[in-house]
DUF7344 domain-containing protein (Natronococcus pandeyae), 118 residues
Amino acid sequence: MDNYLENLSLLSTNDTERSIDELLELLSDRNVRITVAYLYDHPNATLGELATVIVGKTAVDESRFGTESDYERAYVHLYHSVLPRLDDHELLTFDPDEKAVSDVDVPPVLFTVLGVEE
């Protein structure tokens, strides 16, 4: 528990223009957390790839199989909510026509808070 709180305290030292509240609100969405963590190693991911990752992670965490409807829900949530919000926060560029992410610019502190290690 202490490590988790220690990681959260790193947000107060972030060198972005975003407040801690903005970052915590953004990270409160599980799909945002999964997406940001995945983008660490895959900065040019496609919408389909991200939906697959979300379904896979959720299936593993819940000890069940992912379904086609899980994929469709994740895809729609990414397209209409997650990726536009990350784009609005200037953490990446989302091209809805190409259904792809580019120009990932996530502050390293967010990766640290999410437990993404090099």
Q: What stands out?
A: Strands lie at 93-95, 100-102. DSSP finds six helices and two strands in the chain. Helices lie at 2-9, 20-27, 30-39, 47-61, 68-88, 108-113.
